[in-house]
Structures are given as structure tokens and as C-alpha cells.
Amino acid sequence: MVQELKIRNFLSFRDEVILSFEATKDNTFEDYQVVEVVPGVRLLRLALIYGANASGKSNLLSALDFLHEFWFERKEDLDQSTDAVPFLLDTETPIEPSSFELKFFVDGIKYWYTLLLDEKKVISEKLFFYKTVQPTMLFSRDLQNGQSIIRFNASVIKVSQAVVEELTLRCLSNMSFFAARNQVNCTLPYIDSAINWMKSGILPMIEPKTQMFEYAGGKMLNDNELKKYLLNFIHRADFNITDITTEKESVPMPGFMRNAIIEDKQIPKFTKEKLLADAFFDRLKTEFEHTVKNLRGIEKYTLPNSLQSEGTRRTFGIEAAIYECIKGNNFLSIDEIESSLHPDLVEFIIEQFLKVQSHSQMLVTSHYDPLLNTVDDLLRKDSVWFTEKEEDGNSRLYSLVEFKGLNKISSFQRSYRNGVFGALPNIQN
């Protein structure tokens, strides 16, 4: 589980910001929304972020998405960018490094990861774990004379010199240590546990434009439990869908695709001939059974996925991802969760996630402020965060619990709209 994310000089965050999942002493919804990962450390399962457009909400989610991509992207040469984007609305920050820190728990062990890099190279990368209250280094990676120097803590990890040399050779200055480690046959205790969580524990971010329906259909092919989960959810969410069928079908290759293959000079002749000879490709076919009541009684009709509303398709995709998140005790980020969804459905999705006892976590952004009126009825106060863009373009991140007098507020939505918490667009009359 994620305990804390700290970033600086990345996208719109010039100054250091900290997103913490550590719960306050408040015991509201303790059984479902708070997980005590080790004695004395209580982590939240949800963080919900509000803010005006272009205030930095999406950029916060992008920070985790960037880390997940960077950790395991293998670079072919030194000319490739690290893809780190510093704060650009300044004269100094574009030439300064970006900084990331992530604290997380895997199997009851706390890890602390730090990364310092610019657009061309990694300056420093380290991983610690906590055997006591003080961190113990597992590995450090620093840049010296243009080359990555990797060091292991010999008291914890026994690594041969040959492995160290191979890791150093493969770890180009513009890639993560973890991407290099994937290319070397060795065993690295504790580090490998962290890597496994980094790979599978953080799911790809869902954006408003993310096409999730094919993802859901593909998952249902081999997971009947997912199908049951989705059918149960849409039944409770008042859809009239009573069944879903998903299968692969073989369809002829369209003419434009054939022409593209023929004209592509990068495709080897043998591969091109094989592709054209097959002339068919597999695609998912998903159909929905709708049950309706009319003058004739109860009737069932089957409709293809192309005739489902965008809201229905997005609901299926989001819920398939949430199912995987819960099942694997993973971390899922959803940007603008209300996109294409009815407000009541947004609340229902969050409510159903929070009612499951799990070590899964979600980081969600939203403009749907009526959810704020569910604070203390559905949401915990420490689950709510805000982003605000300052006049110089820098994004601030702060928590609802930083404000005093919260127990005297009767409507958090009204207080938000009245500017009590900031994080509103500055619309000129």
C-alpha cells in the first residue's frame, strides 16, 4: 500500500508537495476505509482530489503514472529522453532536476524509494527498507563521470561482482535501475519484492479518454468471476442489462489495412507475406442482453457493444479495473471519475469500493462537488484533498484536515463553493 508520494519540479508542481495516505486519529469508517499495515501505521484506501481545471489534479496522478512507466522502460541508447518534464513557467526550474519519493508497504515491510533526474539522465536513485524505525539502504545508484555507479548494502544483499558489473553495464544513465535489473539473471532479496509490487501493484491511470471497454471484454474472456461481479454491479446500479457474452471472432482484414502493410517498407518481406496470406485477424465481440417490460410482458433483446451508451461502456471499464484493484490489493488512479457518468453512479462506484474490506487503494480526481456533502456519511475528512494554481503557475496541494473548525460546517459543498477551501476557478464577471 502507498503511504506517501512526494514530488518536486514536475509538470505544474514547482515546489515540493506531499500526498499522504496516512489516516488521522479519526476512527470514522475505520473497519473499511483504514488499513493498519503494521502496528501504529494506518493507511487510507481512498484519496479524492478537487480543484479547478488546470490546477494540477491530473498532474499529480501523472506523477505516479510516470514513475510506473519509467521504472521498467528499457532505453536503447543514451539519446532517448527520460520523459521527465520539469516546471516550465520559470527561468531556473527547466534546468533543475525533478525529484520523486515514494513510501509504500509490501507484505508488512516499509520501503522508501527516491529518484532525482532531469530530461536526459538519472542523477540519483535509491531504495531503502525499514527493519527498525530508521531506514536501511538496499541499493544506491549515483552518476559519476556520465556512468551509473551502483552499490548494494552488503549486510543485507549478497551480490557477486559479476552481477554488479552486468547491472552497471546495462543501466544506462537515462533509465531506471529496475529496468536494468529485469535484464540480469540474479536474486536480490527485498529489492525483488519491491519490484514485484511496483510492476503489478500500481495499475495504469484511467483518464476520461481512456478506452476501457475492450479491456473489460478481454478480461471477461478468461475470468467468469469478473463477469459475475460486473453483472451484479450493473443490476444494482439499475441498468436493464441481464447478461453479457464476450468471444473472439475472426474478421477479414480491411482494405486500408492491407494497403498499409503492402506500403510499409519497415515490415520484412516474409512477415508481410504471412500477414497478407492470413487476411484475417481476431477481435472481441461483446453483446449485451437487455430485459425490458412492455405490453407483451417481459422480453429479452441482444444488442452489440457499439449500441451501448458511452456511460455504460465507461462503467464497465472502470468497474473491471476496480475489480482487479480489489482482487489484487492494488493501487488505481482515476482522473475525472465523473466523465460520462451520472452523479448518482459516481457516488455508488465510490461507495461500493469503500464497502469492501481490502488493502486496495484509489486516487481519484473529480469536479463533482456534491460528493463533499457525503463527508462523515461516506467520505472521511482526511480522504479529501485540493489543488490550487497560484499566480506564478505553481500548483499547491493541501488536505481538507488542514482547515480548522470543520466540525462546525453543515455543508462542505456549500463551503467549497463559497471559497472556504480555495481550489476554485477564478471566473471574472
Rg from Cα: 24 Å
The averaged pLDDT comes out at 92
Task: Describe the sheet with the most strands.
Answer: 7 strands, antiparallel
Instruction: State the distance separating the first and last CA atoms.
Output: 45 Å
CATH architecture of the largest domain: 3-Layer(aba) Sandwich
Overall shape: globular
CATH class of the largest domain: Alpha Beta
CATH topology group of the largest domain: Rossmann fold
Low-pLDDT residue spans: none
Helicity level, as a percent range?
Answer: 25-40%
Kindly describe this structure.
- With 429 residues, the chain is an alpha+beta fold.
- The chain has two domains: 1-203 and 332-429, Rossmann fold (3-Layer(aba) Sandwich); 211-329, no CATH class.
- Helix content is 29%, strand content 29%.
- It has helices at residues 30-33, 57-72, 161-170, 177-181, 191-200, 213-221, 224-236, 255-263, 269-278, 310-328, 343-354, 412-417; strands at 2-8, 17-20, 34-38, 41-44, 46-51, 98-106, 109-117, 122-130, 135-144, 147-152, 241-252, 280-294, 297-304, 331-334, 361-365, 384-389, 395-399.
- The strands form four sheets. Strands 2-1-6-7-8-9-10 form a seven-stranded antiparallel sheet.
- The longest helix is centred in the last third of the chain and has 19 residues, at 310-328.
- The chain is globular, with a radius of gyration of 24 Å.
- 33% of the residues are buried.
- The model has no long low-confidence stretch (mean pLDDT 92).
Summarize the structure.
This protein is of the alpha+beta class. Helices cover 29% and strands 29% of the residues.
